[in-house]
Amino acid sequence: MSRPAAKTSQRQLLHLVFGGEPIRLGDNDFRDLDKLDIVGIFPNYATAYAAWKARAQRTVDNALVHYFIVHLHRLLDPGNDTTRTER
Fold it and tell me: At 79, is the secondary structure helix, strand, or coil?
């Protein structure tokens, strides 16, 4: 079974949004990997940013939790630099 065609002609630039509690402030090692909050994978930076912002605002009272946007498209295709056309 084939997947339905994308609604737009824009190329997908996949982004992962997740968060968790780092061991130390400014560190990327997390206290408990089982408690990472995987928000989702998004087709472009704008939707990933909106999801990141909404989730980060929900946890504003807990300064220990940090959310990140990972540019999956850069990991999947490192030779294709899309940094200028992303936003």
Answer: coil
In the prediction, which pLDDT does 10 show? 73
SS3 assignment, position 45: helix
pLDDT on residue 25: 83
User: What does the pLDDT look like over 3-13, one tens digit per residue?
Assistant: 555 555 578 89
Extract the tokens encoding 78.
């490192």
26: left (phi over 0), alpha (psi -120 to 50) or beta: left
Distance CA 52, CA 69 (A): 7
Q: Residue 37 has which token pair?
A: 């909050």
Q: What is the mean pLDDT of residues 15-32?
A: 92
pTM: 0.75
Distances, alpha carbon 58 to alpha carbons 52, 54, 68, 82, in Å? 10, 6, 14, 30
Q: Beta partners for 30?
A: 22
